[in-house]
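Hi everyone, sorry if this is the wrong subforum. Our group has a chain we'd like a structural model of before ordering constructs, and none of us has done structure prediction before. Sequence below.
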Amino acid sequence: MGQLAIASGVAVSVLAVCCGWPDYQLRTAGTDAGDAEPEAAPLEDAAPYDVPVAFCNDGGLRSGEAVLCACSGAPLDDAGDAEVGPIGHQTCTLEGGVGACVGCPPTTACDTVTAPPGMTCVPGGVAVLGASNLNVCPPAGCAVEQPEHSVALTRFFLDEREVSVKRFRDWWRNGHVTPKPGDVIFTAGDGITVTWQESWTPTEPVVRDDANAATWLGADVPDNDALPINFVDWPTALAFCASTISGGRLPTEAEWEAAASGREGRLFPFSAPGSRNDAPTAAMLPCSRANSAAGGSECGPPVAPTSSPDRMSRDGAWDLAGSLAEWVIDVPPPGALSCPGNCYPTTPSADPVLFVAEIAKRGVRGGAWNDTQPRSLRAQARDFRPLTDKTSAIGFRCVKR
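Answer:
Right subforum, don't worry. Here is the predicted structure as tokens:
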């Protein structure tokens, strides 16, 4: 057992399994480490991991050391400090070579809050992202999705549906206000900030004609209001989220994938837990599950969103697979799509983002109605496009903390 140091100075004996959901456990005991321990009391449907998930000292378990456990947000400055850090952080002492990050505060849970209208709550905690995907990209797997790695995320709220033409049209007609240069849009756990740049200028979506599949008919035409908006570039999408929702922004890659995979390594939002490295097939993607050409049934251009539970994620978001691919904040990893296998960080991180404002590409997730390859719609699939791209395949949804 490890000892979790808390602000009152009381040492709490803990079952060393994880830092997050849905299966972390907490054991209470006296301040004397030799006191008898009561039975473990499960928090949130406990079911121990096969392998302990550790966020202590970058994953290293070292006997007798006081080390940092980061559950979300920025790391503590002093890993040896015995005080609780910002929300989502604990400092623990590992004993006997066993220990883990445990007891994340209740602010990581969703049962204590009410999501804003039109949004769903995604719990905080640890998620494993990426995939080896030898079945998808033989013989070496999809390098851009490797290595599989752990991240710790703060609870966030996610749009239940992709932003609609109506929501966008209302914003556009009301002057499409944008953030000011230097406004902070997002601060990652390691302190990296995304700030609004003067060069990011919102532009009107492409108007529908006979030669495209645009859903935008113009600011004064309400006929397509129920459809998801497409032909929107990245600065416009980010400006919409930041100016229409208090604290709003585009999701990070980590947030988007955690929501799409259900934090259970699902291949698609509707797949079984632990299926991330299964081989996707067209049979998995009928129109009832994802609006996509990958199912072989020619579902067609963007349509009004369905309420079918077959197209809902574990947390209550629709169409994270298919319909429209969706912008995220992050830029490509070094080497873009050809990095040789170090396309994700190799150490645990909290609320990560990969961002350099001057890089001209941004992440796109989820696949679209015109994707013919099932692998493009997986929760783990990554793509990157020029931030000024406007296509019939790309839309967006917003998040907030």
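For your construct planning: The first helix runs from residue 165 to 173. Residues 1-106 have pLDDT under 50 and may be disordered.
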